[in-house]
Amino acid sequence: MAAYGDAMTASPTPASAAAQPTPIPSRSWWTLGITAIAGFMVSLEITVISLAFSDIQDSFGDTSRATLSWIFTAYNIGIAALLLLAGWAADRYGRKRVFLIGLAVFSLGSLLSGLSIDAPTLIGARVIQSIGGAMQFPAGLALLLPAFPPEKRGMAVGIWGATGALAAALGPPIGAFLISAFGWRSVFLVNIPVAILAIVLGSIHLEESRADDLPDRVDALSVPLASIGVGLLVLAIAQTEQWGIVSAYTLITIAVAAALLAVFAYRSRRHDAPLFHLDLLAIRSFSVSLVGTVCFCAAFFGWFVVLPSFIQDFWGLSIVKTGLVLIPGPALAAVVSPLMGRVADARGVRMVLVLGGVSGAIGMTIHLLVTTVEPNLFFGMIVPGLFVGIAAGCSFAMLVAATMRDISPQRFGMAGAGRTTIFQLAIALGIAVAAAIIGDPTDADAALSVYRINWAVALAFFLGQAAIFLLAYPPTPSTDERQQP
What we know:
By secondary structure, the chain is an all-alpha fold. It has two domains: 387 residues, Growth Hormone, Chain: A, CATH 1.20.1250.20; 56 residues. α4 packs parallel to α6. The longest helix has 34 residues. The chain is globular. It starts with 13 loop residues before the first helix and ends in a 14-residue tail after the last helix. The N terminus is likely disordered.
């Protein structure tokens, strides 16, 4: 699910459908495999770290939970703050180069995380991880998209997205095994051999590409404006649980972030070498898909991240059983994603994303009607999880396809970075909303009440996704949208 093009997945006309299919060279499959390996590693990391939090807290017993929460917050801020710069660098200096350097930096951060002696060291190592993650996200997507002809990109993105779903499915049992057998440090150290494999294969098989029309320089003031502005916005969202939604800290942080981003937008509109071309937002498929991304991510992550706590704390399941209960949904998503990629290639991505939103809404409705304080693993967790798995299989990769459909190859890195920035902000929003709703319930009945509110909010977001793509997403690109900066 890592990040995440001209007429990328537009529905083929009858004439184009009848045309001889473009042969796909072996290098394209290598590109897909290498970027999928990187995506698998990052997706696996997200899941297993959530499971390891309790053990990390036990190891650093003199550190408050609020401080330890920065293990997640620092990574999220670093990723979101650096994506636009990383996307520009990938387009300017080479997508392969930035991708491989990003993998190396992520591997270094993983090593330092696994060897951390205290909480501040671990948090600092996570910042290093975030730098590597920010570099590889847009660069990997910009390598993958041009490797396949437009009529096969939906399929390629679907397979790429399936690896992220597979990582989410395998994350709980793998994480439970690693933590039980080797301790929490292993969830970081396991990244190193995966990253080394991707670096070696990438050095051999990836083909370098860049945007030849970018100037050698970039608006220097926009770099701190965008990075600090986005970072502060993620900070404000992530810290609402500790600070409060309407506290002075939250409001001031949001106000400063808004001011910095407003100045960034002003300069980007007028500078001859912007960090991000705001004209990309005028492409309807791009801007509508960003809104749909917010809806899906807020729904999915607001549901998924807090669900293990309900299963463990109020149903009394062990960490291993919790992991097994969570497997079916992501496993189904791994199967659905490449299939939906083929559907998108043949029929367009729009209705696939409508189906994703509807399926997620059905999953939340089942939760509201069936899930109670009494453990009901099949109907109360697995069945709604399967519907959300369909939603994820229809949405994670296809949101990338929808967003990048009408983007020129010259702007793959920049547009991919903008898309992933919104993705990260939406994840933070979904988790913050869920945490604010759920709070710290003292018994199962109180927990069920607040979780039902959270499921109802996720239901609304899923329906929002379906409505946005049904009503606002353009079935085919308009002529004027092909004239890009």
